[in-house]
Design goal:
The complex is a heterodimer of chains A (229) and B (303).
Chain A: E1 2-9, E2 19-26, E3 31-35, H1 42-49, E4 57-62, E5 65-66, H2 75-79, E6 82-85, H3 97-107, H4 112-125, H5 141-153, E7 159-163, H6 171-186, E8 190-195, H7 198-204, E9 207-212, E10 215-220
Chain B: H1 3-19, H2 21-58, E1 61-65, H3 71-82, E2 87-93, H4 95-107, H5 111-117, E3 129-134, H6 140-148, E4 153-157, H7 160-202, H8 204-213, H9 217-257, H10 259-264, H11 270-300
Antiparallel strand pairs in B: 1-3, 1-4, 2-3
The chains are: A alpha/beta (229), B alpha+beta (303).
């Protein structure tokens, strides 16, 4: 479960709030879109959930962890419960597809025998089993995002955070990624997708939380993309 | 940490070195030059110290007794002196030995004649003495004062100027060496730190991803620490080898070509020097690598 309780966030150099009094509750197993134009506070929200930033005030609880009480040395343990996918994929360019996915397991010190079993299974799930030897630059954008997704999922996180996962993809690849996210969600993972892809949001009929200039302006089950104009 | 993770960190550390080969080589080169100078200084200082020790032992304090002192009282004085911590060696010179030594020194070739002519009548009858050498000349003056105040002691003879000179020179050489070596070591730490900083900058993206995936601080830092240690280790082994190869050759050369050096210096055997220098250099090399990488990763990798 993800709970944001009266969360406010103001950057030291800024006069206005990047997020102002945000209250959100996302239950386990939900699929949620967070939408809004640039400057709406989406990225700040992601950074708060990953505990890259501390809120100015308010309370954040993710996967039964109260962020205010979380000690610095326990941040890695929290992050292992959250898989993350980024718009620009953030793959390691000098490593193969296999190594990129295995990397996620190595950093949490998974024994090699498990890595050898789980990485191929995960690559099969995202449809890239035959490209395990390729390097990121040999792959299309959609394929790179699927590698990133495999990397985010290989440690079986409770929550999957996707920050503009289709931002750099054409419509066909965008839909493939969204279908994969839906499959992951059906298997029980909570999925939070930050996006401004109007078509996808409107078609998928999921819960939609809309942010505008740091304020939460709408939170609808089976919602649609709200045009700000 | 698991064995597989340790092996992974070692592999990554070695890869870092290869990736930043030029900077790694620069760091290794600096450590080599620092530890080479350290090795040379160490050899010079050890040889100098050994010569100082010889010189210190040659500074003898002679203690003469009141006329007519009993053997018992003289022994008592001897016992008292022997109990002092400063004493290195102490010998009793009997009147006969004193006269024989004096005659040898004064009459040289005619000394047997002199001995015969004074047979049975020792001119130095009351000149028996204790000859004392000290472990350390720093306390020389106080010790002489102590001897002078002993009951039954008539006179204390010592070469105070030599003692003071040797002691001062020994201190200057020791402090100057420590200062130079300390500066060299600091320069090494700075350069290793620079190399690691570059490694971190090059791998910034990778480190960010590691952190977001949930890598512990230690896991992120381990490859850089390995990198520092490898640089330090290689940087320490090369100069020790070089100094080792050079040492005997330089000593042989100095002894054969410059006889004055042979008289001035008591050369320490290579075995004695390198049984200390090899482990100390390796420990310093690894230590420098460790400190350089720990300081840098702590500064740049706040998770």
């Amino acid at each position: 479960m993800i709970v944001l309780d009266h969360v406010k966030m103001k950057y030291p150099a800024s006069k206005t709030y990047a997020l102002n009094d945000i209250n959100i509750k996302i239950e386990d197993g939900e699929f949620v879109f967070i939408v809004g134009s640039s400057g709406s506070g989406k990225t700040t929200l992601i950074k708060l959930l990953l505990k890259e930033l501390e809120p100015t005030s308010g309370k954040i609880t993710v996967a039964d962890t109260d962020y205010a009480k979380l000690k610095r040395r326990n941040i890695p343990k929290l992050r292992r419960k959250i898989g993350t996918v980024f718009q620009n994929f953030r793959l390691l360019k000098d490593r193969t597809v296999y190594e990129n996915v295995a990397f996620a397991q190595r950093v949490i010190e998974t024994p090699t025998r498990y890595i050898r079993r789980q990485v191929p299974a995960m690559l099969t799930l995202v449809g890239l089993a035959d490209k395990y030897k390729a390097y990121p630059k040999q792959l299309s954008g959609g394929e790179q995002q699927r590698v990133a997704l495999a990397r985010a999922l290989v440690n079986k996180p409770e929550i999957l955070l996707a920050d503009e996962p289709t931002g750099n993809l054409d419509p066909k690849n965008s839909w493939e990624i969204m279908r994969l996210l839906e499959d992951v969600n059906k298997k029980g993972t909570t999925v939070v997708v930050v996006t401004h892809n109007k078509e996808i949001v409107n078609m998928m009929k999921k819960r939609v939380i809309t942010l505008k200039k740091g304020e939460l302006i709408s939170d609808e089950q089976k919602g649609g993309y709200i045009d700000e104009d | 940490m698991r064995i597989s993770s340790i092996l992974y960190s070692i592999r990554q550390g070695v890869k870092n070195i290869k990736r930043n080969l030029l900077f790694s080589l620069a760091s290794v080169g600096t450590i080599i030059s620092c530890l080479f100078l350290f090795g040379v200084f160490y050899c010079v200082v050890m040889n100098f110290k050994s010569s100082m020790d010889e010189l210190e032992n040659s500074v003898v304090i002679s203690v003469f007794f009141d006329e007519g002192i009993t053997d018992e009282n003289r022994s008592l004085i001897g016992e008292q002196i022997r109990l002092r911590e400063e004493v290195n060696t102490m010998y009793y010179i009997s009147p006969e030995e004193a006269w024989e030594n004096y005659a040898k020194e004064t009459y040289k070739d005619n000394y047997e004649l002199a001995m015969e002519s004074f047979a049975g009548d020792n001119p130095l009858q009351n000149s028996d003495s204790y000859e004392i050498t000290l472990k350390n000349l720093e306390n020389h003056a106080e010790f002489v004062q102590y001897l002078r105040e002993l009951h039954g002691v008539r006179k204390v003879v010592s070469s105070e100027q030599t003692a003071d000179g040797v002691s001062a020179l020994s201190s200057i050489v020791t402090y100057a060496s420590i200062a130079i070596i300390a500066i060299l070591l600091m320069v090494s730490v700075f350069l290793i730190s620079n190399t690691i900083t570059i490694g971190i900058t090059v791998r910034k993206e990778e480190i960010q991803i590691m952190k977001l995936i949930g890598a512990t601080n230690f896991f992120v830092r381990a490859p850089f620490i390995v990198e520092g240690i490898v640089i330090g280790l290689v940087g320490s082994m090369v100069p020790v080898g070089l100094v080792y190869l050079m040492y005997d050759k330089v000593v042989d050369y100095l002894v054969s070509k410059q006889s004055i050096v042979q008289n001035l210096f008591a050369f320490v055997p290579a075995g004695e020097i390198f049984s200390v220098l090899i482990p100390v250099s390796i420990i310093i090399g690894i230590g420098l690598g460790l400190i350089g990488s720990l300081v840098t990763t702590r500064k740049h990798l706040k998770v």
